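Following up on my earlier message about magnesium ion. Here are the inputs again, as you asked, copied directly from the submission form:
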Amino acid sequence: MGKVIAVVNQKGGVGKTTTVVNLSASLAAAERETLVVDLDPQGNTTSGFGVSKTHQDNIYHGLLFSRPLVELYITTQLEHLKLVPSHRDLTGAEVELQTIPEREQRLKLLLEPIRAHFDYTLIDCPPSLGILTLNALCAADSVLVPIQCEYFALEGLADLLETLRRVQHQLNPQLAMEGILLTMYDERTNLSRQVREDLSKHFGDSLLKTMIPRNIRLGEAPSFGKPVLLYDIKSKGAEAYLHLAREIIAHGNQKKSAR
Ligand code: ATP
Ligand code: MG
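Thanks, got it. Here's what our run produced:
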């Protein structure tokens, strides 16, 4: 049975999209059948794979018009990786979904018939805790939370954890914590080390061992519409995401509490 991982943080610019694009590519490189769902109206994951944000097959059609995902996912440059693109119309979905029954469960229902076809499904979320992110949390088995190594790293985390607890109580009791991922880590700075220590105290085992360094190649790759391992496989960024894929695979289907 495949594992569905929501990549969530309501803070903007912390590395959610970079993680979805490069972790999914690394899982696919390890020959795991992988599906990416771009649930962010910004569509950065979609363009990160070199796909247009106006592609006719997209998640908006699934969420609003119940088009099955099997009709919506498209191939990518990697053999084992499929993508359900975002679309700019998704911007209106937060409002449009309000009138639809079971609006938080739309993605879960869409994924049900195909989740077993994939070893991993990664969902990229927008930087908010609105209805789209709720759909991801209802559909997911686990959450991966990227946190940027900066002074305000822990700010907003309490709101996120509270949302996770509410979702567990009311909508998805099975939701587990895949891990907290440190991104844009710079081992030369005291600040990065301090943030890591703070997070380790707070989260113990939930803090993933892999840290993603600040790496210019990770920033450049999306402008070529490629995951970093197709752009510069020898870069520190590519190495780190391959390492992360191994750590996630090693987790297997073990479940930890999301608290
Ligand atoms: P949003 O909340 O807007 O969706 P996000 O959380 O998805 O943002 P990203 O888009 O992945 O964040 O990253 C924000 C910016 O930082 C991007 O320009 C990205 O290329 C860059 N970036 C992310 N991770 C790294 C890294 N490890 N090293 C260097 N640049 C990075
Ligand atoms: Mg993003």
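One observation from looking it over: The first helix runs from residue 16 to 29. Hope that helps, and feel free to reply on this thread.
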